[in-house]
Amino acid sequence: MATEKPNLPAPEEQVSPVAEDVQAAPETAADAVQPELSAPAETQADPAQPRPKRARIKPVAEPVETEADEDEAPANVEVDFSDEDAALAARSAGLELDEATAEEDAAERAAGEESSEDRFAGKSKEELVGLFARMLEEQPVQSIRRDVEAEMQDLGIDPGEEKLSEIVEKRLREEIKRGVQTIQYQVVTLMTTNGQAPFITVFMYLGEARNPQEKADLAIIIEETIRQRYQGVKNEAGVWITPAFPKLIYVLEEDNIRPGTPYYYLTELAAKCTAKRMVPDYISEKKMLELKVDKNGEGHCYTCMGCRSFLTPYVDPETGKPKYYGRFNQGVVTINLVDVALSSGGDFDKFWQLFDERLELCHKALMCRHNRLKGTLSDAAPILWQYGACARLKKGEPIDKLLYDGYSTISLGYAGLYECVKYMTGKSHTDPSATPFALSIMQKMNDKCKEWKTAENIDYSLYGTPLESTTYKFAKCLQKRFGVIEGVTDKGYITNSYHVHVTEKIDAFTKLKFEAQFQHLSPGGAISYVEVPNMQQNLEAVLQVMKFIYDNIIYAELNTKSDYCQVCGWDGEIDIVEEGGKLIWRCPKCGNTDQDKMNVARRTCGYIGTQFWNQGRTQEIKERVLHL
Fold it and tell me: What is the spatial distance between Cα 249 and Cα 247, in angstroms, rounded to a whole number?
């Protein structure tokens, strides 16, 4: 795709999946490459001394195949420079490094041109890398322009500058469209070894752009990505349906949150897409900058891994700069809060005692995960540990140093806060008299993570477990041990993390405001949602919810329905009904119950599910009440 920016060589600057859902995103060139070079000062040529290397602005020629030894690189791609990364960055930007000659310098100055030495003299490492990156950004447009100019010349046409620019812009947009479409279809047609689509998240954040022009370019790509998701993908019958992946996250920020801001049109487009396809989900830059603060006192906005797992703020000790891309999570162990409560019999003293014991059990389990990773050699997964996905370790080097000092995280998960509080107090945790108890449970788990981190130099963090299918397993185990208790174990599921129970009647704004305080106490990751009806004819209401998210909570989403019956063409909501003691999906128009002949998309927990669910999760989906 001509408009994608090829990755500059970036040591340790890409993310890869390890134990938790992780997604990659491009890093800025200035952070990705740290060349150690200084620009040559302008001096008189000394025939006795070799002249310094300098960058000559022309495309690097393709390697010429020769009969030379395979280990010997073709001469026309050899680069000799003071820093390998800088050389690679220069080459990626279309620059060829060679020795300057006095004649070339004299000719350039006689023509009134700025010589390469002048152009790079006195610039810092970051400025030089940024310059290379800008040249790289310009290449796709220049390439398209050259093609159009050649075509016009072959046809004997002089379209004029205005028309030429119009044609180039149209071609560029078409390149972007094809590129985004290719990525989307590659994702939905690929399968992992267990038959699932790869879990990929696209993070759409204008604030990552380094300059106004780059922001404008990024906006074009974001716009096309949202437009194509709104359209959907075709099913077997050729009907446009909602795909599960890639998951889209759109960052709400000052430049796009209100009418009159430069990129508000993107926010309106995102609202339209959410109303139809359930994505994008939304991250508030305002709340992240306020709550995700590093040791330097600086707030940062960055993506989660997968559907909700967040890394904690981290400053690279070598550079003194924040670092998020390239880090990873060592794994999650989840405590069943409902089990702790039921085991206490409602006695608060016993509850806190058992809570301590179960937390230590979780700690031991987390250490099993950690110790299993210790001693792993980089050779086990070179693309992760040697080639820059997570690190650039040497061959045979253990990954151990990446497991400490906050570089990676390890997560204590929790589930069933609602049922836990309900059993211990007799009330929902939304009740003002019960909320303090719920918050004290959250604080206790955070305190334990801090205690373990201080003792072991491992970055433990609290994580709101999504419980995709485990919700059914937990519920069945609780029923087996404690029987059916009304309001606590009488469902085929338990509530995700800190969420308000799916059957509790509460409006969208109150729900988001209430859950925000718990999300802040889940630094390892969490997501909130509101259940809404078909909002395609009420986009203003969607925009109001988005603005509320921006002002009040880090990360949230809107859930709607997006179904299609392949038998009769029904594109409304497909019902969940009970038949023979089992929950099944049935088309309300023709009665079709064959899951192979229907497309159903529902929010599972953070991401969209399209492959149907176990009985517990299906019951939870059926019982969700609307919040708007």
Answer: 7
Token pair of 403 as six digits:
């497991």
Higher per-residue pLDDT: 116 or 62: 116
Report, as an integer, the average pLDDT of 524-539.
94
Give phi and psi for 415, each to the nearest 5: -150, 150
Burial label, 179 (beta-carbon count in 10 A; 0-12, 13-18, 19+): middle
In whole angstroms, give the CA distance from residue 378 to residue 23: 20
The counts of H helices and E strands in the chain are: 18, 17
CB 438 within 8 A of CB 389: no
- The encoded tokens of residue 172 equal 């560029």
Query: Which segments of 113-197 does DSSP mark as H helices, in order?
Result: 116-120, 125-155, 160-189
Cα–Cα distance measured from residue 184 to residue 6, given in angstroms and rounded to the nearest whole number: 18
Q: What strand order describes the sheet that includes 608-609?
A: 562-565, 598-603, 608-609
Return the axis-axis angle of helices 337-344 and 417-425, rounded to nearest 10°: 20
479-490, pLDDT tens digit by residue? 999 999 999 999
CA distance 505 to 139: 55
Are 39 and 117 a contacting pair, CB within 8 Å?
Answer: yes
Distance between first and last Cα of the chain: 41
What are the E-state strand segments in 375-445? 409-415
Q: Is the pLDDT of residue 84 over 70?
A: no
As a whole number of angstroms, the distance between CA 314 and CA 400 comes to 18
Q: How many CB atoms lie within 10 A of CB 537?
A: 8
Tell me which H or E stretch contains 482.
helix 470-482
Q: What angle do CA 197, 202, 207 make, to 5 degrees?
A: 170
Q: What's the number of CA atoms in the CB half-sphere (13 Å) around residue 336?
A: 18
Long-range interactions of 173-176: CB distance < 8 A, separation 24+: 173/220, 173/224, 175/1, 175/2, 175/3, 175/140, 175/144, 176/1, 176/3, 176/220, 176/221, 176/224
285: pLDDT strictly greater than 90: yes
Indicate the DSSP class of residue 624. Answer: P
Q: At what angle do helices 348-373 and 337-344 cross, to 10 degrees?
A: 140
Residue 579 CB contacts under 8 Å (≥ 6 apart), including other chains:
586, 593
3 state SS of 31:
helix
Quote the Cα angle for 429-504-340, to 5°. Answer: 40
Other CB atoms within 10 A of residue 267 CB = 24
Residue type, 99: E
Cα–Cα distance measured from residue 211 to residue 371, given in angstroms and rounded to the nearest whole number: 43
Name the β-bridge partners of 608. 603
Distance between CA 295 and CA 467 in Å, rounded?
32
